[in-house]
Amino acid sequence: MRRQLRTVFSTATGTFAAVALLLLVALAIAGPIIWSDKANAIDVAKAWQPPSGEHWFGTDELGRDMFARSLVATRLSLLSAVAASAIAIVVGVPIGLLAALFGPRLTSAFQSVVNVAIAFPALLTAMFVGTIIGIGVPGAILGVGIAMAPMFARLTQTLTASVASLDYVAAARTMGVPLRKLVGRHILANVAEPLIITATTSVGTSLLGISALSFLGLGARPPQYDWGGLLSTGLKAIYTSPMAAIGPGALIALSGIVFSLLGEVIAGAFGDNQSSRRFGRVARAMAAAARRLSPISAPPAEVLLDVENLRVGFPSENGELPAVRGVALRVAAGERVGIVGESGSGKSVSVMAIAQLVEHPAVVTADRMRFLGTELSTMAPAARRRFLGTNLAMVFQNPMSSLNPAMRIGAQLTEVARVHSGLSHSDARTRAADRLAEVGIADAGRRLRQYPHEFSGGMRQRAMIAMGLMETPRLIIADEPTTALDVTVQRQILDLLLAINRDAGAAILLISHDISVIANVCERVVVMYAGVVVEDLPVASLLRAAAHPYTRALIASVPDMATDRSTDLATIPGRPPSLSDLPTGCPYASRCAFATDRCVEQMPALAPLADGHLAACWHPQGGTL
Ligand SMILES: Nc1ncnc2c1ncn2[C@@H]1O[C@H](COP(=O)(O)OP(=O)(O)OP(=O)(O)O)[C@@H](O)[C@H]1O
């Protein structure tokens, strides 16, 4: 970042802004020391003199030198503007954070209040607050600060809301990172750039506000004076001695421009920082390294995850949208289970609900949601966070958003071990280096000191997996972990998951819309359609025994090396039903070649076809397991 700042400050605009700021600061420090005597020297005989070699801006009604007074006023003018911006930040940022983090009711109440506050002219707010506090410098500072606070509150709320939905925040929440650290490290650190830019430009806006109040007689009062007050004085003699008004007016305008330019320059530096991020090359092959993972012993047939009748609904204008409608899911210790289905079938929402990452206003219910024999829905939130943080790891789709870009990899990995295991910094670091090595990242010591942008996409996924392995997870949920990666890296990440499953014994719940990915990695596949499980069977029997026409259509739509490329690939005609208009019968009926009246009228329940094979279909196809 320092390098970027140096680069942008070496441009013509950057140099001008930096030099002008230095001059202003020097003037604010030295002005009152050097020119106070001249600025306060009264000589009534020389009242309202026009500009001359002796008085560059002329004199005021008491014959005081307006140029000296303008220079002396720099300190009060700038300090007041900086103080007003600081107040706006100190009041606005926490309000914006609270509104974004504490539920939609607070957010909508906040938005209504802030919209009204922003619509109300800021100068009127400042005058109102300033007059109540008392006419003078403190009142003007507070008035302008309070008037600008809604702008910071809204900016913070919008930025926080966008960051809070990113995967690394969800991951930190899954791992039980406390709210204080979540806000400080994962949210504020990532919204700091636009906030810093706005804070810089806001000093210019504050300066205009404070000057306006002083100009109106609501700010600095004699014997104090700032540029706004001097402008007001100068205006009295605008026809005989225009420089008395133009001088302080020009200083206000110039300073405002300097702070706007500074904001632009800093924004440019941040922008350059983003664009200069380069991904490193993909690390070497994985499977052998992953074999070094410390094994976790687990009884072979232990039921790890047992979910029954999971339902998730999202409130909307047209009533509740049932995204997940009675899903049943079982994962045994060490088992590799895949969930497959078209986009929107409810795969992600189901696992997010299990990981307790679906929030109000969504409504989550389940007859049973047991993990490691413990019912999750009745646990106290703090204990549940700790429990899931040590036993469950999540790997998300997008390695770009899975890691906090503002934190070094080492800090992100050690945070988990320090929160959950209370490890010392050096022990946590040793464990983090071990885990990076185990997921195949060479030179782990150096890599720990790097930021996510210095990692390739595949390495970030590895780092994310390493983060999940900082504790000893019994279940790794990987939600489309390879979708954002290129084909060769996809294979490496899947091999890594397989190796972890084999060597560390962690069960894998892999989500994909690609049934061939599931078939390559998993032992069992759960097929979802329109929020329900339509089939659940061993992968080994997929080709032979898939019974649901939807499962069979998914298999038929996968090309393989033997596919005749001169003919079109099989596609599934039609589209999944809309959540707001679900049919009463089988949701697949309108696309199904075997559908009858019964399918349209009655929803088939998920029922056993054979031992280890369930399907929800009135006309199951295929052979036996
Ligand atoms: N926050 C939300 N508010 C409203 N509806 C949502 C929300 N999150 C998900 N949904 C809806 O729930 C349904 C299931 O979404 P989900 O993300 O689980 O699908 P998916 O099978 O994982 O698909 P994809 O592979 O595209 O992620 C979709 O119709 C989606 O639009």
Automatic annotation (TrEMBL):
List where in the cell it is found. Answer: Cell membrane; Membrane
**Taxonomic superkingdom:** Bacteria
Q: Entry's SMART domains?
A: AAA
Q: Which GO terms describe its cellular component?
A: plasma membrane
Q: Which UniProt keywords apply?
A: ATP-binding, Cell membrane, Membrane, Nucleotide-binding, Transmembrane, Transmembrane helix, Transport
Q: What is its main location?
A: membrane
Record-stated family: Belongs to the ABC transporter superfamily. Belongs to the binding-protein-dependent transport system permease family.
Protein name as it appears in the record: Peptide ABC transporter ATP-binding protein
Native species: Phytohabitans houttuyneae
